[in-house]
Design brief:
Layout lengths: L2 H12 L3 H8 L3 H8 L7 H11 L3 H5 L7 H13 L11 E4 L3 E2 L2 E2 L1 E5 L4 E9 L1 E101 L4 H14 L5 H10 L3
Parallel strand pairs: 4-5, 5-6
Antiparallel strand pairs: 1-4, 2-3
């Protein structure tokens, strides 16, 4: 296939019109038509952009594929016989892309293979980017993965507005080890912390608690108000004290912390 034929084929597989592709590349529709008709060739800058859009190499776009003659086939067969002792390991690769797209982005893209990234509204792969993404390396609004980044992030190692995982970093963070504004976990570090070992700048509640206000089951260290062990009455007193030490711009976090205290 020629470069133009390949461009037309890739564009149709992507579900794009010539007008849509032209808009993405900031060129005219006539330019796309001329490229696909092999009347002109894209500039290097446009070829790089095309390879990114279609997830293919520039070599694939530029090198024409020609038919192999019978003599060439025979020669290739002889070469294979000579090299039959060589072993080639093929890395498995699975990919499926929905025909339905939204602004040129597939509704669903499954792309599982080393060095490959799934990109779609719903994306699944070893590496995945999407509104909803699942993968070992995952990034999206809702992200699930071993290493996860998103507004809502779930995984072994996660970073997000709301995150939950073995090691978790977020505004609202849940996990075995968690760091954030409001944290709930085995080892919890934040402004308002709840956990087995809890360190909170304003509030810490747990088995062992360290903070300005600290309530500990077995041990506490506080600089403002602290009790160990604590009772329901101590929780109420802690909530009252929070109103005096937490600045107004953290009222939203203070109210969430009070909700966790069942007050």
């Amino acid at each position: 296939m020629t470069t133009g034929t390949k461009l037309a084929k890739l564009r149709k597989e992507k579900g794009l019109t010539q007008e849509q592709l032209a808009e993405m590349l900031n060129v005219s529709r006539q330019s796309i038509s001329k490229w696909e008709s092999d009347l002109t060739y894209p500039e290097t800058e446009k070829l790089i952009a095309l390879s990114r859009i279609f997830d293919c190499s520039m070599d694939y776009l530029l090198k024409d594929e020609v038919d192999i003659t019978n003599n060439q086939k025979e020669q290739n067969g002889q070469d294979r016989d000579k090299e039959k002792e060589h072993f080639v390991l093929s890395v498995p690769h699975i990919e499926w892309k929905s025909r339905k797209t939204i602004r040129g982005i597939p509704l669903c893209h499954i792309n599982i293979g080393l060095g490959r990234t799934a990109k779609g509204i719903f994306a699944i792969g070893i590496a995945a980017k999407g509104v909803v993404s699942m993968g070992i390396l995952s990034m999206g609004i809702l992200s699930l993965g071993v290493f996860s980044l998103g507004l809502l992030s779930l995984g072994a190692f996660c970073l997000g507005l709301i995150s939950a995982g073995a090691i978790s970093l977020g505004v609202l963070s849940f996990g075995a080890i968690c760091v954030g504004v409001i944290t709930v976990g085995g080892i919890s570090v934040g402004l308002f912390s709840f956990g087995g070992i809890s360190a909170g700048y304003y509030l810490a509640i747990g088995d062992r608690a360290i903070g300005k206000i600290a309530l500990g089951d077995t041990k506490m260290t506080s600089s403002y108000f602290g009790v160990s062990p604590y009772s329901i009455g101590d929780l109420r007193q802690a909530a009252y004290n929070l109103d005096h030490i937490v600045p107004w711009w953290l009222d939203w976090a203070k109210n969430i912390a009070k909700a966790f205290m069942n007050l």
